[in-house]
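The instructor's notes for this session suggest beginning with a concrete chain rather than abstract definitions. Hand out the sequence below and ask the class to guess, before any prediction is shown, which regions might be ordered.
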Amino acid sequence: NKARLLEEQCQFNEALGQWEILKTIYSPYPGISFEMERVMKRRDQQATATIKIRWVEQIDSLIESGECEKAEQVLRQAREEFPADQELSELEKMVRQGVERGAEAQRLLDLGQQLWATQRSDEGLALLRRAFQLDHRNPVIRAILVNTLLEQARSQLDKNWRSAEPLVEEALELDPGNPVAVGLRTLAEDGKRNELVEACISQARQAQTAGDLHGALVHVEQGLVAYPKEFRLIQLRNTLSRSLDHSPGIDTESFMSRGPESETLAATQGAGSGAKPAAELPALGAETVRSDPSPLLSTMAHAKSPQPSARSETTAGQTAVEEPASPAMKPAGRKVWWRTALVLIIVLGGAWAVRHRGRAPGSQFPVPAPTPQATIRQGVLTTPPGGKIFVDGQLRGTADLVLELAPGSYQLRAELDGYASTTLPLDMKPGTAPSPLEIVLQPEIATPAPGNPTIPLQETPLRLRAAMPPVKKKTPSGTQVMAPSVAVESAPAPLVLTGYLQLKRSPASLQAVLEGGSEPQPRVLPGDHMELKEGIYTLTATAPGFNKLSIPVHIDLGRTEVVELTLQPVKEPEFDMKKVWEMPGNWAAEGDWLVQKGGNFVLSNLHPITGTYEFTLWRKSRSIQWVLDYTDERNYDLFEIDKKSFSRTRVRNGKKGQTVKVPHKLEKQVYYTLQLSVSPEEIGTRILDGQSWVTLDEWKDAGSVAGKFGFYIPGKDQVGLSHFKFKPR
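After discussion, reveal the predicted structure:
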């Protein structure tokens, strides 16, 4: 019985041992030899099955990881030992299909990269997606697809955040922890926020211009539903509220207490403003508006169309009945009387105060009162919110708040329990409207109090548990740290030693790449604040037109390392702009500019004129005109740019040909940086818009360019010229 029990438990060697004992004790036991042969056969079958299971497990693991070529090699070895096994035959089919898919995926990957390199980004990205679908376990294809998605999103982000957002989300699905994708998603959310806020402000200003203060507040409150801490909306709401306070017959407190979702908020909106009544505006929650602001934006766009008035709709034979006045429009009666009396008292008291202001006792002449200095409003936010804000050591409130400060220099300090105090200078310049200032507070690092045990970092992972509330302590360096007493307890997670890196970029467009330390490979830093493991890193900064900079960075436990990346512009050889012109004495120097007044055709001595010109013009008159292929006053090609458009005209034998005009979007500029590419095949004109060149005109088959280059400055017109460069073809 014991031998059979062990056999049922697949313990065949132990069962054979029991049969051997029985054979020794009682050899005539019937059927004992058959039983022993049967158990030995089952033992051999178990050993064979175990070997096969190990082969199959190894092959399945390689297929799952996408290593089909290695799986094919292992499968050949297994088939030598089990040539007729049906399961291995099926695995062989799977491996063959995986190898074919991998080869096709590699072909699509190579083709997609080639298309991407030739600026056919959409086609290349589609092929990369197909390659990933065929071989989604391949880490190389995944990494290339993620990087391509992020590059495409980065190129579209400045133009249209809506097209960039799905690309970033797709990259985050493939690589949830990608820091570049996280940074780009933040920029896309900023674009979404700015679009919604600007739409709310635009509609509110339109309603305010039309005299509909209630309707203006409706649009502001709709924006605050999505972004309750948006400083621009809060500032506009305060302005509109003050305007309502000074409007007769309007109870501002009653209006503001109804909240942004009240159905009666727009009951008194004027029909002439064209603003949509509040009852018709969508009741959208903050998360809904943030995720997709389109319903709210479309509602605001619809609000521009005027609504027909019900009073004017009458039919033949009917008498138009005037609707009763709204309660908000009725006279306030006794309430208006005592308000009028109160205003009269205030006016008389103010007049008396003005008459006696600044008069010294016993003096017959008033002493001039000091002129009040205009204040500047500065919004201050902290991350995390709730920080205490000090100005020159005086507590001014809790963030988020708006400071009203006179022009001058201040020391701004933010404090929050559990975070290090942050101090920074604040310069308030008169006549400016500064953007809201966000202060990012860094967590303080808890240190063991005296008498508590030392924490061995090399042993079991531990964590610190505060035994009493944290307190602030002055260190010899003068900085504040948290110094709570601590107790030691076991924790399942390892203790990660981290510090913080803060970047200050100049120029702001420079690209920073971090490598070394705990970074497995170099990565671009999209933001200026990040948490890093303790170690030594290398920062490399690059920007077009600037020299490359590489510096080492030491990240210490709990400390914030502030690194200023300041790039020096590439020095170009000095160029004497006056020597370019046939009559250099007619140009007058004004700082970095050369200015010419009048002179008609002011020609250069460059020859030949084919090549690339680059210069900055100062439009001191209505427009700026220059010429190419000038042979005499009756034959030349005339180019002109004013505040709205660019144009060109060919003049032959004193007669002007057809004028080609191209509008541009730089109406508010008086300075233009232009680039001219001159050749017999084409004359191209480009203008610098921010950081990128925009093509204004490509004149194909322009013909001969054997004449001269110069400016046409008629009458009293003036032209300012700076940064003139010419590179011959």
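Then share the key points. The chain has 15 helices and 31 strands. The mean pLDDT is 75.
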